[in-house]
Amino acid sequence: MPNLNETHDPHLRCWVESAHAPETDFPIQNLPFGVFKRRGSDDGACVGVAIGDQIVDLTACLHANLFDDLAARAAATCDEESLNDLLALGPAAWSELRLQLSRLLRDDSVVYRNDPSIAEHILVPMVEAELLLPMQIGDYTDFYAALYHATNVGTMLRPDNPLLPNYKYVPIGYHGRASSIVLSGTPVRRPRGQTKPADSATPVFGPSKLLDYELEVGLVVGPGNQLGQPIALAEAEQHIFGLCLVNDWSARDLQTWEYQPLGPFLAKSFATSIAPWVVTLEALAPYRCAAFTRPAGDPAPLPYLSTSENQSSGGIDLQLEVWLRTQQMRDQLHESVRLTQGNFRDMYWTIAQLLTHHTSNGCNLRPGDLLASGTVSGNTKDSRGCLLELTWRGSEPITLPNGEIRTFLQDGDELILRGSCSAEGAARIGFGECRGVVLPANAEG
Ligand code: MN
Questions:
Q1: CB neighbours (10 Å) of residue 33?
Q2: Which residues contact 120 (CB under 8 A, 6 or more apart)?
Q3: How far apart are CA 442 and CA 331, in angstroms?
Q4: Torsion angle of alpha carbons 239, 368, 99, 14, nearest 10°?
Q5: End-to-end CA distance of the chain
Q6: Is the CB of residue 210 less than 8 Å from the CB of residue 191?
Q7: Which of 157, 208, 292, 307 could pair with 251 in a Cys bridge, judged by C-beta atoms 3.0 to 4.6 Å apart?
Q8: Residue 374 Cα, ligand 1 centroid: separation in angstroms?
Q9: Mean pLDDT in the chain?
Q10: Distances (CA, A) of 149 to 35, 163, 224, 383
Q11: What is the pLDDT of residue 1?
Q12: 400 near 337, Cβ under 8 Å?
């Protein structure tokens, strides 16, 4: 786990005014990474860091000689349209770049005091930037790491046998589809597929009627491992660059018909949305907490998934929210309504356990791979991270403030995921947003 250092100091002041706006997700203590392009410019995409309502262009900083040594070597990987080369460098380089960037942005920065005009060379207003997918994602794995989610879903699908006997030993996951991961803001088309109506002996093919979201957190893989060489739990966090918000869109009717015997497939692979900003694990150091407390009587994790450090500080106190704005709400100028309020510390498995388990058979992870946590659900009704659970498979519809009713998503619905961390003696940092509007299914043809 990264230690606290001067970059986490809640009293830091930044010369970028908007970094002090009370509602900003991006104060100087955060410094999340993404990929952007200047709108209306022929310049290629490159890596940037969010600060207030601005983006720091790391390549411009490098060219202005604002970094040295390891930070300069790290910044030299940033003139690329993905974070992948930076991810391959590992935590020493990430950390030095963060430190030098933090010092550069502080209002006592000698560089800035001597020449305030550097602001216009290294900052790009977010409103003038187009954000792109932050990583080139070679492989995507989706886990199922929340006990409450697994128990709720299992209860609906298998009332007599909700939690299968492997759950408390194995971090369950499946290989997701990387090609259909889209950036926040990209509309998501309702999938068509096979479903089997309850009153029919045979399936039909058509638009999904039970479209859902899943509130998840993504782990962005750093250097990764050689094939055949597992990553020990004690080293796992050295391989996690940071976290981002993920919406694992799910067609429940397709899923119910196809998921046995090999697990999710077309019910998931039509789209997964991710937020544009990756919050580094180092930025999350002030919000670390104990791993989830296993209920009395649960088995201890097997030794390869167990260290005392993982138990004492493997969790992350990350508040998560899901908001909905329907087409009618937009037409009537109603604000979005919150559906879910959960916390990432409720996951049964820690991020380190997920990564270590994934490599435990020798499987290699590569820079830019995405591991998603699985739906984040807590033990209260308002912390359930998908509509399947919130409406108990449609049997408990939700009435929205404008009178509309939802069991599953309708065309035109917009989902917005948000996340933030706060702690005593630390700044509040946020994850930006992960948005997506549901488009109608393609016409039959
Ligand atoms: Mn999922």
A1: 29
A2: none
A3: 23
A4: -140
A5: 53
A6: no
A7: 208
A8: 4
A9: 97
A10: 32, 10, 29, 10
A11: 63
A12: yes
> How far, in Å, CA of 191 to CA of 342, rounded?
27
Q: Residue 161 has what pLDDT? A: 86
Burial class from Cβ neighbours inside 10 Å (0-12, 13-18, 19+) for residue 395 reads exposed
Strand-pair category, 188-189 with 429-439: parallel
- Using the mean position of ligand 1's atoms as its centre, give its distance from the Cα of residue 128 in Å: 33
Instruction: Calculate the CA 134 to chain-centre distance.
Output: 12
In tens, the pLDDT along 365-383 reads 999 999 999 999 999 999 9
Marked catalytic residue, from 149, 239, 357, 358: 149
Give the distance (Å) from ligand 1 centre to CA of residue 268.
8
Q: Would you call 345 helix, strand, or coil by DSSP?
A: helix
For the stretch 42-69, pLDDT in tens is 889 999 999 999 999 999 999 999 999 9
Paired strand residues for 47? 35
Q: Are 374 and 358 in contact (CB under 8 A)?
A: no
Q: What pLDDT is attached to residue 38?
A: 96
pLDDT tens-digit series, residues 273-324: 999 999 999 999 999 999 999 999 999 999 999 999 999 999 999 999 999 9
List the beta strands (DSSP E) in 288-357. Answer: 288-289, 315-316, 319-325, 337-343
Q: If residue 415 lies in a helix (H) or strand (E), which one and from where to where?
A: strand 414-421
β-partners of residue 218 are: 244, 372
Torsion of CA 356, 378, 390, 251, to 10 degrees: 0
Angle at 222 between CA 187 and CA 1, to 5 degrees: 110
Using the predicted structure, report yes or no on whether residue 251 has a pLDDT greater than 80: yes
Centre of ligand 1 to C-alpha 184, Å, is 16
State how far the Cα of 94 lies from the Cα of 251, in Å rounded to an integer.
38
Rounded distance, CA 242 to CA 222, Å?
Answer: 8
**217 within 8 A of 243, measured Cβ to Cβ:** yes
Cα 48 from chain centre: 18
Average pLDDT (29-42) is 96
Query: What pLDDT, on the 0 to 100 scale, is given for residue 75?
Result: 98
Q: What is the rounded CA–CA span in Å between residue 13 and residue 52? A: 12
pLDDT at 158: 85
**Which pLDDT belongs to residue 61?**
97
**Cα 376 to ligand 1 centre (Å):** 9
